[in-house]
Amino acid sequence: MSRRRLVAAAFLLPALVLLGALVVQPIGYSLYRSLFDRSGDAFVGAGNYRRILSDPVIRTALRNTAVWVVFAPAAATALGLVFAVLTERVRWGTAFKLLVFMPMAISMLAAGIIFRLVYDHDPQRGVANAVWVGVHDTFAESSAFPGARPGRDSPLEPAAGGALVTRGTVRAGEPVLLPLVGVAPEALPEGTREAGRAAVVPGKVTGTVWQDFTRGGGGRPNVVDPAESGLAGMRVEAVKDGRVVASATTGPDGTFTLPAAADRSLLRLPESNFRAAYAGVEWLGPVLVTPAVIGAYVWMWAGFAMVLIGAGLAAVPRELLEAARVDGAGEWQVFRRITVPLLAPVLVVVLVTLVINVMKVFDLVFVIAPGAVQDDANVLALQLYRTSFGTDADPGLGSAIAVLLLVLVVPVMLLNIRRMRKEASR
């Protein structure tokens, strides 16, 4: 027996040496170093741990880590479960699984760069905002003239709510000139033509809304000069006693015609003409940056959950599912009362694995979150890096954060070990 023990110890010794050098020694040194100050000379005891609770930046990291632990593993597991169940019912399920699992082949750094571009605020570059702005503009089209304003000595003046209104009333049979400036030539709507002079129509109010600016200079203010562009699609309202009595929309040359009811009224260009273009959602702003990064994580790890759950689903006895359907159970009842309970051990494995994984999330947050909002997206693993390295490094506080992270992970690891032992004893 003693010889066998010596042989076993000889085979285990290299692994134990590596384990001690790469795991036990760093943990012990981190615990020791967390009891000293920045320089490592003065013993501070639990001072660094008290700083963790008092520092608002680290408290934000703790709160965000809790959000990650609660939502990211649950979302990835739920999505993986849905994908695993649905891909069993389609002919091209294997190809779909390949597409969903493919992000796992990408490093966290590469995924972070991809989603930094996806979440870009400019709809011309960011896919998320391009889709969001497209949907928004389908139901609420933005104005083409957000920068338009009256020029010098203009007959228009600002009114409440951002509208523009004429300084005096207009009369039928007398064309009205409504000049504006501040619209970039490239921002003019497609199909815009040279500004036209409104015709005199007896009994009706006519006029022109145009860009009162001549390229190269030489134009006269408040006069329709050649080569000046009409502002097409501009809404013009006739207002009497605070009530809109008539309205019209300018044509491609900027001209409009209002009925006789507009006689002796004020003309108003409502604020809808000058509403700024919808710029989309600030995905990487202080409010949404953490959900946005969690979305990138779920995109990467839903495939991992799907593969493990799919393997467990393949082992589910089909006769139980068929028996339930024969007894009249619907698909939702079969899924909720039979499939999910039978998959519970696999779901726990996936969930626990992802919980441990999100505790170490660093790359995604570091790459995706801009520097201005990195404190808002901060997590413990990132704070550990920021505190321990750099020009203002504090190894003592960094070691305390590392010990805290270990303490948070250990209960999950013990739960996982207990579950594996329970499964092995069956």
From TrEMBL:
Subcellular location(s) of the protein: Cell membrane
Domain of life: Bacteria
Positions of the ABC transmembrane type-1 domain: 62-416
Transmembrane feature ranges: 66-86, 98-119, 296-317, 338-359, 397-417
Keyword check for Transport: yes
Membrane protein topology class: Multi-pass membrane protein
Family: Belongs to the binding-protein-dependent transport system permease family.
Protein name, UniProt field: Sugar ABC transporter permease
Alphabetically ordered keywords of this record: Cell membrane, Membrane, Transmembrane, Transmembrane helix, Transport
PROSITE patterns: ABC_TM1
